[in-house]
Predict the structure.
Amino acid sequence: MVDYIANNTWLLWAAAFLIFGVIEMFTLELTAAAIAVSAVASLLVSLSSVSFIVEVVVFAAVAIALLVFVRPPVIRLVRSKTSHDVTNIDAIVGLRGQLVDSSIPGELPLVRLENGETWTLSVQPQGLGVGALVRVIEVRGASVVVSADIPTTYQSKG
């Protein structure tokens, strides 16, 4: 059995590739991927009937090169492409809207935002009445603070 493995070291490298490929699927850090690619390089070298020492040196050299020179820029690229979109309450800040009349007499006007949501005001904006275009500058609980906005393409839906 030992003679068979010694004469077919490509099987060891193929097994290493498969093992580290599966590990990479679970970690997604590109470390195991670099080792898996190094195993493929050693597998290809082993097909040319060189000594096992040369195969190990190729494995180590390719792994170190990938981990030092390729992995860091790829990780930076992947992380820079990751979505940094704001969601939930953070997505409300900066939206434009229009002040609409409250259905309750004596209450502050409501704000109909460009995303279709209607929010209550926490503070009456100075000098702005119903119909004024505004921009959300802060969210306070279930209400918003707005400031005057320069008219743009936004039109209220309703």
